[in-house]
Amino acid sequence: MRTGTPLASAASQGDGVSSEHRSDEALPGKPETVEARRVLVLAPHYDDEILGCGGLLADLLERGADVVVVYLSDSAASGDLPGREEVARRRRQEAAAVEALFGWRSEHLELTDGRLEVGAVTDALAELVATHLPDLVLAPSPIEVSADHRAAARAVYDLLHTQRPEGPVQQLCYYEVNQPLRPNLLVDVSRWLPRLETAMELYASQQELHDYRRAGIGLRRYRTHTLEPAVEAAEAYLRLTRAEVGSLGWSALCERARGQSRTRVETQRPRVGVVVRTRDRQELLQQALESLASSRMPAHEVVVVNDGGALDPLGSDWPFRLFRIDHPAPRGRAAAANSGVAALVSEAIAFLDDDDRVLEEHLEVLAGAVAAPGVEVAYTDAAVVTYGLDPAGAGWVEEERRRPYSRDFDRALLLVDNYIPFHTLLVPRRLHQEVGPFDEELDLFEDWDFLIRLTVSATPRHIPRVTCEYRHFRGMSSHALAGQDDADRRERFMRHKARVLEKHRARLDSDQLAQAIVALRRGCVDGEERVHALEQRAESQRRESLRRQRQLEQSTEEHRATTERLRLERDLAESARAEAHGERESLRAELGQRDDELRAQYRHADELRQALEDHRRHIEQLDDDRGRAGEQMEALHAEIGRLTLELEQQQRLLAEMQATRAWRWHRRIESWRGRGG
């Protein structure tokens, strides 16, 4: 049983070395039937269960399956609908109507829409699986556009990676909503189209924002293009067995859902769990976890065992599932290791103390080694790195880096001395269970004792490659020796080493002892030879340094002469630059004057152009006036002619009138009147 609290759920597994899924495989050419008795459906929002897998759910319900739809969010962030609570209430009412139409059961987690967190969904899903014991889980595809959909996909993946293979869930089907996936399963849902359309219309609040009914039906129509004409609608799924989920890393699963060219299926490399022991060293622990996070093949899970120390929260942004176990009081290195191992479910176990760290290829190399035929246990090399405090205040700085523990496996030598740093080792869970737990009676050398017991039946494979660091910080002791002076540490060190030797004395016969002594002596001789070689190299480097010093002294005068020559050339260049600067300023002033003159000429030309334009307009005005005057003269001449004709006519009439008798009598009468007056 797993203990501790999960802090993050982002497990993934590195690429394996076995079979491959190819994107050029044909899409399914015929629909299939899905068999399940208990079904758990993850719907990030109200309506996802209909848009993604409504037809399959109708078919399963008709055949007697128990279906539970889990709505993860409150779906209150839909579009521009006013009032979050009102939106959530309306969406839930619509879901209730759909539930009544189909006849399934439902659970509502009411997490925040648009902000689903993988860890929270994983934890809730674990409880739901324990309650409903589904043999089939339906979830959105890992390549969906919606972040909430992708979080749901990752959560079910993480959960299945943390549970044992014999768990209730044996099938996982990823469905599509807003991003088509590469399916390996098509289900004929033609007969359920009317019910699906009705259900989509019941989600009226969504239809007001977008025609999801048309999109959902259209996707099902599209999925029939590889099926016989009688199939009018089909739903597409990526169906995975429990074993396939366990063998696929997250990136590989996403590639498979996309249908990319080659997605390797990891069926040989084991999932690796890592036990990290710590006490009162938060900063070093953070560095150790960060080194694990940088691994090319991330750990499947990491258990941090806090052995009675003060420890701040570890955060949740890790590319592996992180657990934390706290001992109320210090119980020792062996007990911490046992607590961590008991919390793991992975097939292989690695160890890391808080003051050490791994390189990015560490887990990948070890997992690849134990995946090879005939290899059960493997270990690499560790670089022993010594750090000291920088006097200038720059913190811990590297002072020395060595590789003293690079040795092929020697069972006899292991009985008298430990040459395998424990964090270089990868142990199958099966072998650990056979060997038994760490000896909690040992405050030191519990790893050496375990290695001796482990190698009774297993022969570790040595990979002579540095994949991790065994770090020493000057002035900082290990947990087991904390608070003791040098004499106490040496005495306790020797006492515990003697306890391990005594415990396994029966395993060491005279031949093995002789072999161990020869190996140690060979190591001493090799060490002396290395020291001699280093001394020779140092002497050679000293002579080379003296030669370079003499060369440097000989070149000093040349350097000085060159410096003087460069100084003179610099002075000449400065003088030339100053002269050029003066000439440039003079030319700039002259250019400014020429520019002013040219601008004045431009202004004068503009004035002349304006005067010419005014004169042209005046001439045009005079031409217009002259034309109008000519028209008026012609009109006057015409009027004079008319009046002349009229006068001549009046004169003729007057003459005719004067010639009449009446006019003559009129003249006479007027004449008489004149005389009488």
Please outline the helices and strands:
Blueprint: E1 5-8, E2 20-22, E3 38-43, H1 48-62, E4 66-73, H2 84-102, E5 105-111, H3 118-132, E6 136-140, H4 147-162, E7 171-175, E8 185-188, H5 193-202, H6 204-207, H7 212-222, E9 234-241, H8 242-247, H9 250-258, E10 262-264, E11 272-278, H10 282-293, E12 301-307, E13 321-327, H11 333-343, E14 348-353, E15 357-358, H12 362-370, E16 378-389, E17 396-402, H13 411-414, E18 425-428, H14 429-435, H15 446-454, E19 461-473, H16 486-503, H17 510-658, H18 661-676
Parallel strand pairs: 3-4, 3-6, 4-5, 6-7, 11-12, 11-14, 12-13, 16-19
Antiparallel strand pairs: 1-13, 2-10, 7-9, 8-9, 14-18, 15-19, 16-17, 16-18
Task: Give your account of this protein's structure.
Strands 1, 11, 12, 13, 14, 15, 16, 17, 18 and 19 form a ten-stranded mixed beta sheet that branches. Strands 5-4-3-6-7-9-8 form a seven-stranded mixed beta sheet, with helices on both faces. The N and C termini lie far apart (162 Å). The protein has three domains: 18-264, 3-Layer(aba) Sandwich (Rossmann fold), CATH 3.40.50.10320; 272-508, Alpha-Beta Complex (Spore Coat Polysaccharide Biosynthesis Protein SpsA, Chain A), CATH 3.90.550; 512-670. It is of the alpha/beta class and 677 residues long. The protein has helices at residues 48-62, 84-102, 118-132, 147-162, 193-202, 204-207, 212-222, 242-247, 250-258, 282-293, 333-343, 362-370, 411-414, 429-435, 446-454, 486-503, 510-658, 661-676; strands spanning 5-8, 20-22, 38-43, 66-73, 105-111, 136-140, 171-175, 185-188, 234-241, 262-264, 272-278, 301-307, 321-327, 348-353, 357-358, 378-389, 396-402, 425-428, 461-473. Residues 1-24, 261-267 and 479-484 have low confidence and may be disordered.
